[in-house]
Design the sequence.
């Protein structure tokens, strides 16, 4: 099986350790949900994978490319969409997508076609030529998502992608992510909405204190959690695992 | 603050003042002692000036005569205009600063009271700035024989109240006429233009010519002496108030206070509606005909230049500030044109040097915006585009508006004096590029909103720009004067300075990591 992401011994310390000797593997073509309580190290881990934060130690391999040795080659394969949309208020969605496509050197004609398709898919076709400054948080999130998809990344990393979206928009985004995975793409996301992770993710990793507590499919997680019954929900497992990891 | 009754106007005002003070202190963090030392030196100079005035005026009274009245009235008009340029912008901002207003409007406090306090905050801020500047000049005279001159502070308060009332009314009128979205833009541009108009008025000698201005002053003085200059009734009130006559001073304060009270009360009811409308302003923008989309730019370099130029072009505050600097060049351009025609060598050379210097200043400001005030640094960091490509594109984007601004005046100069035009163009280009590079090497990440008065820019970079720009401008001046050998000296020093200032990509990255 091709591995989309292999993380080995990843560490990062700010004022205190944020990520500690983390090992993680995400298979190509799967949707992987990285869960954890606030301050668990999820975002720091993903920022290191995206090349935004320099690790103190460890290895990151993206589709076989050593991300620390060849950052540009690795970045070409990845898209990163944080919970705060990375957009310019004074640009229109089309102009924004033109810029992002330029950064990933997508052919201009192809980029324009993709941009129009993505905006139509996300229900933003009518707003394509209006500046983003008046958009709601949800609309901005959709524009940022279109930006993440414009260069057709092999690995899509999303930090809390459903924040600020209404029910219809959340469904739309979930469907798009699922379609992407069905088409062979790889998605890693973090979310605090455990039901979404339970329903959508192929595999789930639970992290706390910068360490991976458990990883696998739901049945594997149940097996890894002592005393969990067969009908335990992800919420039960999550709460039990994270409570156990708390210092007494 | 806890001594004041909760939800009272005084309590709210204390809250506003606390936020303003903390904002000021937060703005000072990281500026180091340099700025404070500069302020102390400036203050000391002003005190020396104040003592000199006190000694010179000791035992003399200000005569209430037409020329003195005209000068006092003119001073009041100038101060009022300058204050208005500040209160107009501040009033527009008061409608848009949503976080605080949402909290206040969701509380049981009346919107009129909120507006009253906001307006008082604006008036206090504006009058304080002028008082701080005038105090060291005026207080020695007040202490040494002219206690009545304390009235100047009273006049400043009256003017600040009037300017706030006018600024608030104008902002609300703009709001009603052109809608909430454009109000802020127009207010910012108007405020900048008012400031520029003041500068242009101060340069009237250059604009209308030395001879004409001398004649005008002589005519005025003669008219005053012969009694032909008869001020209208009440025109002497400001002067009388300034020298401490109680009734005129009370009158001015009453007029200012009355206008302020009227504006706050009359507009208070509309304030919350206007602020609420402002929040949804952008999303309710009228839908015009949709333009067909132009083809996408190819590659990161072109896409980045296009994006930066779009962002510069759509930033009203930034444009108004650049426009201001261009307007500052206007008197100089006129002087250059006159000199070029008449070949007044010294004026022409000085003007060429000044154009080169200003090109560096504008380029430095734009380079700071494009390089340091990036709204989404993470987006650029996750992209595979090399940082060097992005920086080159951003620097190029900063140079394009400078080239456009200088193209016409330099072309006109070249028409009359080809060699001078060429030297000026090279000097301006060199200064602009060097100032851009300084901002590239000494980046200080900040927000676009901090552009006004370049609060966010690095002090070191600003000083370096002035030094290097000054040296190249000096070289340009000497070159135009034909002193080629002498011109080499400042240019070599500027080159050496640039070598010292140069930073490698690794050094820049390290500095940015530390700053982050």
Sequence:
């Amino acid at each position: 099986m091709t591995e989309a992401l292999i993380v080995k011994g990843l560490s990062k310390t700010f004022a205190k350790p944020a990520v500690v000797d983390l090992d993680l593997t995400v298979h190509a073509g799967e949707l992987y949900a990285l869960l954890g309580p606030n301050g668990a190290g999820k975002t720091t881990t993903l920022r290191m994978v995206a090349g935004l934060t320099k690790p103190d130690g460890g290895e990151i391999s993206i589709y076989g490319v050593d991300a620390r040795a060849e950052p540009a080659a690795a970045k070409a394969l990845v898209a990163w969409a944080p919970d705060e949309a990375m957009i310019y208020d004074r640009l229109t969605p089309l102009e924004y997508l033109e810029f992002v496509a330029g950064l990933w050197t997508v052919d201009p004609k192809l980029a324009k076609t993709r941009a129009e398709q993505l905006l139509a898919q996300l229900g933003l076709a009518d707003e394509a030529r209006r500046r983003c400054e008046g958009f709601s948080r949800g609309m901005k999130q959709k524009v940022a998502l279109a930006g993440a998809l414009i260069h057709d990344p092999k690995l899509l990393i999303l930090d809390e992608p459903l924040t600020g979206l209404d029910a219809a928009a959340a469904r739309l985004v979930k469907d798009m992510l699922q379609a992407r995975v069905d088409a062979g793409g790889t998605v890693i996301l973090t979310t605090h909405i455990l039901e979404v992770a339970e329903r959508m993710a192929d595999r789930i990793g639970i992290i706390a204190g910068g360490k991976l507590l458990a990883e696998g499919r739901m049945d594997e997680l149940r097996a890894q959690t002592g005393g969990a019954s067969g009908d335990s929900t992800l919420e039960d497992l999550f709460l039990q695992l994270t409570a156990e990891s708390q210092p007494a | 603050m806890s001594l004041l009754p909760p939800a009272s106007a005084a309590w709210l005002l204390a809250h506003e003042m606390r936020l303003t003070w903390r904002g000021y202190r937060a703005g000072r963090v990281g500026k180091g002692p340099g700025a404070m030392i500069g302020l102390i030196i400036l203050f000391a100079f002003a005190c020396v000036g104040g003592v000199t005035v006190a000694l010179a005026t000791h035992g003399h009274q200000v005569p209430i005569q037409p020329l003195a009245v005209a000068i006092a009235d003119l001073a009041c008009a100038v101060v009022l205009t300058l204050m208005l340029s500040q209160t107009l912008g501040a009033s527009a901002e008061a409608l848009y600063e949503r976080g605080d207003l949402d909290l206040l409007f969701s509380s049981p406090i009346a919107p009129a009271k909120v507006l009253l306090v906001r307006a008082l905050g604006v008036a206090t801020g504006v009058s304080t700035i002028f008082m701080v500047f005038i105090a060291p000049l005026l207080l020695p005279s007040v202490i040494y024989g002219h206690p009545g001159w304390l009235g100047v502070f009273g006049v400043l308060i009256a003017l600040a109240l009037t300017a706030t009332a006018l600024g608030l009314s104008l902002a609300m009128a703009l709001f009603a006429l052109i809608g909430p979205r454009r109000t802020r833009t127009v207010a910012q541009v108007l405020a900048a233009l008012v400031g520029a108009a003041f500068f242009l008025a101060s340069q009237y000698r250059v604009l209308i010519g030395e001879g004409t201005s001398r004649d005008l002053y002589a005519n005025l003085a003669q008219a005053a002496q012969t009694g032909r200059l008869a001020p209208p009734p009440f025109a002497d009130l400001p002067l009388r108030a300034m020298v401490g006559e109680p009734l005129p001073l009370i009158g001015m304060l009453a007029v200012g206070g009355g206008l302020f009270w009227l504006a706050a009360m009359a507009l208070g009811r509309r304030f919350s509606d206007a602020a609420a409308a402002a929040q949804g302003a952008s999303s309710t923008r009228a839908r015009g005909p949709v333009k067909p989309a132009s083809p996408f730019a190819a590659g990161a370099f072109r896409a980045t230049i296009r994006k930066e130029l779009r962002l510069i072009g759509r930033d009203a505050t930034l444009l108004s500030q650049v426009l201001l600097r261009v307007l500052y060049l206007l008197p100089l351009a006129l002087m250059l044109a006159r000199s070029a025609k008449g070949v007044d060598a010294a004026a022409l050379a000085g003007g060429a040097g000044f154009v080169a210097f200003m090109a560096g200043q504008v380029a430095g400001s734009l380079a700071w915006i494009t390089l340091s005030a990036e709204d989404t640094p993470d987006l650029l960091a996750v992209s595979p585009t090399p940082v060097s490509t992005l920086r080159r594109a951003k620097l190029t984007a900063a140079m394009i508006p400078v080239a456009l601004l200088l193209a016409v005046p330099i072309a006109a100069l070249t028409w009359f004096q080809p060699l001078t035009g060429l030297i000026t163009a090279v000097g301006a280009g060199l200064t602009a590029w060097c100032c851009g590079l300084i901002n590239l090497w000494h980046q200080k990440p900040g927000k676009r909103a901090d552009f006004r008065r370049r609060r966010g820019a690095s002090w070191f970079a600003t000083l370096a720009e002035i030094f290097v720009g000054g040296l190249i401008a000096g070289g340009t001046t000497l070159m135009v004067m034909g002193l080629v050998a002498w011109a080499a000296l400042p240019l070599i020093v500027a080159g050496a300075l640039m070598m010292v200032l140069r930073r490698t990509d690794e050094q820049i990255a390290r500095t940015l990591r530390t700053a982050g």
In short: The first helix of chain B runs from residue 9 to 28.
